[in-house]
Amino acid sequence: MKFVGKGFGASADTMGEVVFQTGMTGYQEILSDPSYCDQMIVLTNPLIGNYGVNREDFETTVPMAKALIVKEACDTPSNFRSTATLDATLTRFGIPGLSDIDTRMLTRHLRAQGVMRGVLIDGELTWDEVQSRFDELSPNDQVARVSTKRTYVSTGKGPRIALIDFGAKLGIMRELMKRDCEVIVFPHDATSEEVLRYEPDGIMLSNGPGDPKDVPTAIPLIQQLMPTTPMFGICLGHQLIALANGANTFKLPFGHRGANHPVLELETGAVTITSQNHGYAVEESSLLDTALIVTHRAVNDGTIEGVKHLHHPTFSVQYHPEAAPGPFDANDLFDRFMQLVQENKQKVGI
Amino acid sequence: MPKRPDIQKILVIGSGPIVIGQAAEFDYAGTQACLALKEEGYEVILVNSNPATIMTDPTTADRVYIEPLEPEFVERIIRQERPDALLATLGGQTGLNLVFELDKRGVLRDCGVELLGTNLAAIVQAEDREQFRNLMFELGHGVPESEIVHTLESAWGFAERIGYPIIIRPAYTLGGTGGGIAHDRESFEQIVESGLKASPVTQVLLEKSIAGMKEVEFEVMRDSSDQAIIVCAMENFDPVGVHTGDSIVFAPTQTLSDRDYQMLRSVSLDIIRALGIEGGCNIQFALDPDSFTYYVIEVNPRVSRSSALASKATGYPIAKLAAKVAVGYKLSELKNPVTETSYASFEPALDYVVAKIPRFAFDKFESADRRLGTQMKATGEVMAIGRNLEEALLKAVRSLELGMEELYVPQLEQLNTDQLEHGLVHPTDERLFMVYEALRRGYTVEALHQLTKIDRFYLHKLNHIWQAEQQLANEPLTSERLLDVKRLGFSDVAIARILASDVETIRSQRHGWNIRPVYKMVDTCAAEFASETPYFYGTYEVENEAMKTERPSILVLGSGPIRIGQGVEFDYATVHSIQTIRDAGYEAIIINNNPETVSTDFSISDRLYFEPLTTEDVLEVIDNEKPLGVIVQFGGQTAINLAASLEANGVKILGTTLEDIDRAEDRKAFEATLSAERLAQPPGKTATNVEEAVACANDLGYPVLVRPSYVLGGRAMEIVYEQSELERYMRNAVIASKDRPVLIDRYLTGIEIEVDAICDGTDVYIPGIMEHIERAGVHSGDSIAVYPPQRLSDALKQKVVDYTIKLAKAFRIKGLLNIQFVYADDLYVIEVNPRASRTVPFISKVTGLPVARIATQTILGTSLKELGLGTGIHPESDSISVKVPVFSFAKLKEVDPSLGPEMKSTGEVMATDRTLEKALYKGLVAAGMNIALKGNVLMTIADHDKEEAVALAKRFDRLGFRLMATSGTADTLEAEQMRVRRVGKIQESGETMLSVIERGEVDLIINTTSRDALVTKDGFLIRRTAAEQGTLCLTSLDTVEALLQVIESLSFQTVSIPAFTKFGVMV
């Protein structure tokens, strides 16, 4: 299928997995969320760029998305914090944008056929040429590309949290710092020895791009840290906890990407509206022989949205309690994590 | 929690008559709620006084009571029905106030009636200014700083602390009388003083003005398990300062970053949880455009106009789900009725832009004050959907039916710079168009922002439209250019104007280039889930989702925005027609643009196209759907007006043909038909200048009824009693010319009679005859109608029937017709409307005949005989029903509340009882009249009414009322041995008419008008003061007569025993 529109932002040919996002606000956060690494993002909200781009709402320093596909890109933004247009921002980061697209048609196509690869070019290509571009597939090293290369520390007076960066959104850091944590950020391939050397009070597994099975180094790390230290996984971190416990993950047909996804907490029956961005999910049947139990489920399709460990202080959610973009309704999960950290500290007598 | 099994019977309270601020949205909400409760197996009892609603159809609830929404009546119903529970949050402020009354009276406790949904304490907490402020302080949310003061001295402290501007709101005055915004010391002193004077408790609220901030609204839902979601957030084009009902609104919010949005979203959830609302609620915010500072302006703890708009804007049926939440369901247990795959506990995602523009009645009320402020003035609204903001806005503009299809208004070119800038700074209904005019004159976005405080984002969008218009005008027309402006929402009419071409040329060029709209679905989820919702909007993009089905279809045109003269009655008939078409096995398609109504509920039709009702938009839908034909006779004048252009483009009009519609609407053809049938109409002539007019009137004899030939619906129609008045009318009120003659008819002061009838081409069935209380000359929509007629002899009724049959056949009606007669010395035909009328819901309800359904069946080819009806009149019912008009004068400053040939009412109520007096009593009470059984009656009577008025005055005198009058009338009354308290004219010193009204000493004002300039001015002042004071003011002696009958029937006779005759003791 071919869509013709107007280019904006950087003028570069590109390719990637085409996914759609239904949030009505938050394009700046979406664009800069490292989990979108190598993806071309279709925004279903037709007017993008209305409130410009500001200095504060980036979720990473260098956005890694391949392209932004919109119905209309606003070049006359209006908001008190706006310092740049969307066009200028995309140009700055070398990301091409495509506007004047029937994004609803494209979204319906993706919903029906599942997410798929796409090529964005300035000009014409034959289908054979498109195919050959697809063959030059980028390697599955997205996590390695978006993760920090070396360990660094952000000081704080509260608990010491080891944040394993698989492509962490700054929002996770913000939430931990809001709770006075000292945060030590580790590269995705850190070993348990490296992490434990810092004597962390809790382990935070971040979100990140791609297929969780492409991050094999995380499995032993999680397995070794889980028994001793409270652990909280978000999104990719959640999927990795599942894999580390012997469960399986699978690719969803078109993923969950938006800011309006209801999630049911099984224990309380409470439903929260969550921010989501994931193309993979934990396979229900694969949990059978593991020590994980399901704690949260998507109201719409029933897929797993959260698990916890039966014996270890480990829990994780598929969605984004740090919001940015999206609702803060699940923000208390960070408080629960803090509580778990406190309880564990008392238990081990620190 | 699933639904509650411990309750069986639920009483639902409606919102009563349509007034400004409380309109058709409550029919939509109430109907949805009742049907939702029935769907759950509950027995639903409904009380509402408004007959013109689908809600009050016997199919909506198990039992429907059309009774006054007053505690005494509702209490009776509660005692009679003994419901287990009551649902009041769907009946607007009226519903809530009624429940407070019932609670205060102890009725709910006494009868063991549980209030469903939000409890009373929560409602009070949301509505009581002080309690609400305290709650916001507790929660840490900003509210504009305010203080209650009783003296000017104590007000200064606040002013010094807060600074100007300050809003001054006097306590307990209707419509904000005496209040205002003070910009400096001087105006502050003046307004506080006048406010204190206006307040009966000498109290004003001073409030920091937040005018100019962004206004943002959140529609929130919560269930009893504390789950809460946002259904929709909307952003106003007009900054804070203009009532949100009078503001142009866009959804979703456009200029809020995720951080801004999530901040207000979290606050909204916090508030709905703190209040403990179970159901829907609306929260209005003011957001500082330059910081994260926000203020909570108001919370409506119930469904509202905004929630109806949000439902239509998102597809999420708030009222339906609110009703289900009220009976115990959790949101996560309820399926989203749009997708039927996802659940109700999810927040709709929009992939389009929605624009709402309010519709005002200022085209009708030329004298009205058009300035917009904190008091709502709009009678209705339109909504439009597009894939960009320009498209949504321009579609909404042409849905307004203001006579133009674009932002350019030629008359505004006449304004000088001062006038234009004044209009930009002080918002009126025309501001949007003034901004466009300013752009045309070269104002920059920045300059306009400084003047209007409208967010630059929106001004840039308007500027984009202007840039596109210039490009279109100055560059050669290519298919790319045309597609470009079509994508921006330009209508063919506008393009033709810009290119100095004609609309047919543009349309065929556009079709030649194959530039056609596609239709996209409103599905609540931005296409994330497959949906079957038959709810579409048109746009210029690639993929069309509204594929024609195999089933034969019929298109019904709706009636557009609610305005005076074309109200919810037409939506009622439209909905009935759609339902009948579906029952007959066709696919029923509707086009309409009014977000408040039942007809735009996507579950009503097989396919809903939310589109403007213009020739272009309707033709494109027809091209997409290829219906068998189009029904125009239920959508009021809006739909009828489209008939000619549709037929000219090859569309089949079902029912009465275009030719016959024209014969009824064209005066010459109408007269010809009438004289061919030997049916009389009031003698009349046409005049093209003053001299001709005077000659005509002399021939006919005064009084005469004059009106221009080129306007419809009673506009600029007047009754003229003498030559000087006629000359003034011809000189000032109309522009007469050869092409536009003035029609002059003899004014017959007889009984006005109205008939609705159905004709299938062979038979004519008359559901009933209605008689008007007010004589001809008062617009039929403003008259009290009585069914069955009380003053007509059987012979006259038969004559009405005969005339109706003749007229229906003569005009070859297929479907509905409405005829107005006047009976003076003989029966005269005033007008024949070849369409559904305002009285269709009333006559349907009083006769039990679903008139619009029967009419639709005849249009679809079923004969009246096959329906078991044939020719004749439906047997009269034993009980007597009245339809009483309801006005919104308190909200429309500068509008003269006197009755005349121009319609002024916004709504109606119905009442039924065994005698006329009882029915009238209920009707008047339901219409909001305070019927005093004693007190003071102030009479100011025009000379030509004096004789008649004296008789009425005597009856008041006999009932013990005290009469008040100025010298002229007082002399007349005293001459008839009545005691009169003399009051001065307005200009006189001492006690004047105005001062006694203002002091609340008058219980009833009887004021008839004449055209004497001074009298007119005084009369106007009296009527306006009465409207603002809430004092009953009657301007038709017939209404007074009806009121007297009611009062007399409520009063025992108190007459002294007769003196003894000379055969007894000495006298």
What report would you give on this structure?
The complex is a heterodimer of chains A (350) and B (1067). With 350 residues, chain A is α/β, with parallel strands linked by helices. Chain A folds into 2 domains: 6-135, Glucose Oxidase, domain 1; 142-348, 3-Layer(aba) Sandwich (Rossmann fold). Chain A has 10 helices and 18 strands. With 1067 residues, chain B is α/β, with parallel strands linked by helices. Helix content of chain B is 37%, strand content 19%. In chain B, the strands form 7 sheets. In chain B, strands 28, 29, 30, 31, 32, 33, 34 and 35 form an 8-stranded mixed sheet that branches. A 7-stranded antiparallel sheet of chain B has the order 14-13-10-11-12-15-16, with helices on both faces. In chain B, helix 1 packs across helix 10 (305-314). Chain B starts with 8 loop residues before the first strand and ends in a 17-residue tail after the last helix. The mean pLDDT of chain B is 92. Chains A and B meet through helix 3 and strand 14 of A and helix 9 and helix 16 of B. Chain B: Mn(2+) 4 binds at residues 831, 833.
Question: Which descriptors would you attach to this protein?
Answer:
heterodimer; A: 350 residues; alpha/beta; Glucose Oxidase, domain 1; 6-stranded mixed β-sheet; 18 strands; B: 1067 residues; Rossmann fold; Dna Ligase, domain 1; D-amino Acid Aminotransferase, Chain A, domain 1; 7 domains; 8-stranded mixed β-sheet; 7-stranded antiparallel β-sheet; globular
